[in-house]
Amino acid sequence: MAADLEALRDELRSLARVVVAFSGGADSAFLAWVARDTLGRADAVAATAVSPSLAGDEHTDCAALALEWDLDWIEVLTDEVHQAAYTRNDADRCYWCKDALMAALDPIVRVAGSHEGATVVLGVNVDDLGDHRPGQRAAHERGARFPLVEAGFTKADVRSWSRQLGLRTWDKPAAACLASRIPYGTEVTVAVLGRIERAEAALHRLGLRAVRVRHYGDTARIEVPLEDLPAVLDRREAVVAAVRRAGYAYVTLDLEGLRSGNLNAALPDTARRRSARPDTALPHTARSTPAG
């Protein structure tokens, strides 16, 4: 492992009190556990943003992890699905999602109470910096920090350390928000998010741990890792039935396999470059950290 766990602990100690944006994924779960272990329960709250863009299974797992790890866990309601800037689903959709999260967390860290003066921290890792992620810019603009980046952690480092520490999230498949399944330019609605969630939950019940259901109107395009393609074909009838019950008329399988963030390929290069600009996406300490 290239990254030093003690360096991450030092970053957290320098902040003294944190609110971890806790989605339950491998990165945010690792950060939440280390923060609680380093700073203590009182100074490391885990906050989960609850909205239609969060899959119910992920919400349930956040609650389970908080109980298992004795986290000070809170849920905050976010309203991005009621904002036109988000629902129109242009290249900056993720910006408005993180902006809504930071707005929801603002009273928690500013109003007098047990979390007053805390710094919001996100589980962004070094590998995330090269992709189109305007949400990083929104979080930074509102004062969030990225301790994993500042300590030089890659995705592999997060998973390796999680496994060494005995965290069951070490091999949890990546699970971005449900809106990431909707091509840019297609309106994000609660109904569409619900259809995607039902389809993916049904496929999980069929034993497919890592899966994306990309939404194209009445057509669902299923993505699974290449090694899982035979399993999908072997259970073709069950897969088709499950996705149709969720509300899709047509069911397709992407032979290129699961590629996280592949819908970003449709964006102009200018949008991706703007998202990745280090002077807008990252704090000064993170910009000075070598990217591997």
List its salient traits.
single chain, alpha/beta, 3-stranded mixed sheet, 12% strand, disordered C terminus, 7 strands, globular, 4-stranded parallel sheet, 292 residues
Notes on the structure:
This protein is α/β, with parallel strands linked by helices and 292 residues long. 45% of the residues lie in helices and 12% in strands. It is built from 14 helices and seven strands. The longest helix is centred in the middle third of the chain and has 18 residues. It is globular, with a radius of gyration of 19 Å. The N and C termini lie close together (11 Å). The C terminus is likely disordered.
Summarize the structure.
The chain is an alpha/beta fold and 292 residues long. It has helices at residues 5-15, 26-39, 56-68, 84-87, 93-110, 134-141, 147-150, 155-164, 190-205, 229-234, 236-245, 269-276, 278-281, 284-287, and strands at 18-21, 44-50, 72-77, 119-121, 212-216, 219-223, 250-253. The longest helix has 18 residues, at 93-110.
How far apart lie the N and C ends?
A: 11 Å
Task: Please state the oligomeric state of the protein chains shown.
Answer: single chain
Q: What global shape is seen? A: globular
Q: Helical stretch count? A: 14
What's the helix-strand series? HEHEHEHHEHHHHEEHHEHHH
Structural class: alpha/beta
Largest sheet properties: 4 strands, parallel
